[in-house]
Write a structure and sequence with these properties.
This protein is 71% helix and 1% strand. By secondary structure, it is an all-alpha fold. The protein has a two-stranded antiparallel sheet with strand order 1-2.
């Protein structure tokens, strides 16, 4: 049977991406894509399209139990971060480490180390590290531009890799949407793909390596070398951008001027992490035990793959929040009203991420082949009808599969010698570049992941299957394609002039925003270029990341030795 929508099935995600690039508003762009899709499935009937948009797409998505758990975790984690920051515990933890900074090298390395420690949220990372290390960097003649670069480079990359952050639930949900769009029985698990794709996030790993490399060698190049030389040789000149934090986020979180004991930050985070790990192991083991022929001692990988990560994240973060409240109340740091206000303000910061997740999830369902919820399920067509839910679903994945099948049959097929084979090998690079462009133009990593991940996973899966490969959870091309989205979204965000974390990192560090962009951009482009040449391109030909990542690190070392210069006068 002919596809009911053909090329038009691609229109809603294309509209969402194009509008996001033009308007720079991810939420409104996703909503516009949903409205476009509703008009398609309703045959242009405006009244029915409006009804379907609200009742068939948006409402069933937000009341889905798994979505509610993800929303709950994100809000709880935001509230916990707001509470920890308001207590002064995070400042106490940072100041515990700050005395290790005795010279320029150790100062930069310590700042980088603390950025790695604050792994649970990019906003908290930017606010705390930038504010706390400003006087340290001033004393050591480290420019504000260098501080902003370190802060920005350890904010989103660390939060994006962490299994316990305000990012992980959103990333897992986007991956799960991609798995759902594949259709059929795939034996893929979102958390398994998330973990296995980490070695393929070449830009993220390279960016985190370049910071300590620059600190250890004392070498810089381009605008950063100029900024460092100016600061080192004119330490007494006032910084025109000011030396205090000027962000609405800081005001909302009510960052205290004095810190408290570092345990006030470490213990709630440790409880949250321990609770999440424990529940992942318990839910995974319980799920495996119910299967026929279950192994008495299943491997850890199988346990993690079978675990209910949404339950683990939700109740782990709840446990950390309760422990934090009890600790702060017992110490008299805050009363109940102050804690409620801090939790509310912290949770408010993650509302945009929840809105993106909601609309992106609804768009993913619209373009899939899933039936709508049972109370409003479309009547089944004939037994041989491959598109029984065409009244509400666009079957975008099925259309892409037909395109790939036609290309494979006409351009080389399973031999991989024709256009289809080359396209598959270049897919990780194409996806990385596309994600970078979308993120650069929109200034949002979350929005980019939400738009592309549900499309990329089924596309890569079908291309691999058409070329005769096994599209399993450990397939290098599948993992490299996913890693291309997750890393490209952060690369574009680092380069974007409208990125919220870029602006926040500059302001928190007391650095002019434009100066931060100009000094960080060459370093981001360097790592991005290496990530393509020694990462996504050879990965498309099956080269292991265990070889590629060390090669990228070695290439960065050679570039810094060849083009980097030491700052004179220090």
């Amino acid at each position: 049977m002919e596809h009911p929508y053909g090329l038009l099935s691609l229109l809603p995600p294309v509209v969402a991406i194009a509008l996001a690039i033009v308007t720079r508003h991810a939420v409104l762009s996703l909503l516009a894509g949903l409205a476009c899709g509703s008009l398609l499935t309703s045959g242009g009937d405006l009244f029915r399209a409006a009804y379907d948009l609200l009742e068939v797409h948006l409402w069933p998505t937000i009341i889905d139990p798994s979505k509610l758990r993800i929303f709950s975790f994100t809000l709880l984690m935001g509230g916990l971060i707001g509470l920890i920051i308001r207590s002064g515990g995070m400042q106490g933890l940072v100041r515990l480490i700050a005395p290790l900074a005795s010279n320029r090298r150790s100062g930069q390395l310590t700042t980088w180390l603390m950025g790695m420690v604050i792994f649970f949220d990019d906003y908290a990372n930017s606010l705390l590290i930038g504010n706390t290390f400003k006087p340290v960097c001033d004393r050591l003649k480290i420019s504000r531009e260098k501080l902003a670069y370190i802060v920005d480079t350890t904010a989103a990359p660390v939060a994006g890799l962490s299994l316990l952050s305000t990012w992980v639930a959103v990333e897992l949900e986007f991956i799960d949407q991609g798995i759902g769009a594949i259709g059929g029985s795939t034996n893929l698990a979102a958390i398994e793909l998330f973990i296995d794709s980490i070695p393929y996030r070449f830009y993220v790993l390279g960016a985190l390596f370049l910071v300590p490399l620059i600190a250890w060698t004392g070498r810089d190049f381009g605008p950063m070398w100029v900024a460092e030389s100016k600061r080192a040789n004119h330490p007494g000149e006032p910084d025109p951008s000011g030396s205090w934090l000027q962000t609405e986020v800081a005001e909302e979180l009510d960052v205290p001027t004095q810190g408290s004991h570092w345990l006030n930050a470490l213990l709630p985070i440790a409880v949250t992490l321990g609770g999440v790990i424990l529940l992942i192991l318990r839910t995974g083991s319980a799920a495996l035990a119910k299967r026929e022929g279950a192994d008495a001692n299943p491997p850890l990988r199988d346990i993690i793959g079978a675990a209910d990560s949404s339950i683990a994240l939700q109740y782990g973060s709840l446990a950390g929040l309760v422990v934090a409240m009890l600790m702060y109340r017992a110490q008299g740091l805050m009363d109940l009203a102050e804690m409620a206000r801090a939790i509310r303000r912290g949770a408010g910061l993650v509302i945009p991420a929840i809105a993106i997740l909601w609309f992106a999830s609804a768009l993913s369902r619209m373009t899939s082949d899933r039936p709508v919820d049972s109370s409003r399920e479309v009547a089944q067509g004939p037994a041989n009808d491959p598109y029984p839910h065409r009244d509400h679903r666009l079957y975008t994945g099925a259309f892409l599969g037909q395109l790939i099948a036609n290309q494979a049959s006409g351009d080389g097929g399973a031999t991989g010698d024709g256009g289809a084979g080359w396209t598959l090998k270049l897919l990780p690079t194409i996806i990385f570049v596309l994600a970078s462009i979308v993120s650069f133009c929109t200034g949002t990593s979350f929005g980019t992941m939400g738009m592309l991940t549900p499309l990329v996973l089924p596309l890569a899966y079908r291309m691999i299957a058409e070329q005769g490969g096994a599209a399993s959870a450990d397939n290098p091309l599948l993992l490299a394609s996913l890693g291309g989205v997750l890393a490209g979204a952060i690369f574009g965000d680092h380069c974007s002039p409208i990125s919220d974390t870029t602006i926040m990192s500059a302001q928190a560090s007391g650095c002019d925003v434009m100066a931060h962009r100009l000094t960080q951009l060459p370093y981001a482009l360097l790592v991005g270029g290496v990530a393509i040449l020694l990462g996504t391109l050879p990965a498309g030909w099956g080269v292991s990341p265990l070889l590629l990542v060390p090669l990228q690190f070695a290439a960065l070392v050679l570039v810094m030795r060849r083009f980097g210069r030491r700052v004179e006068g220090v």
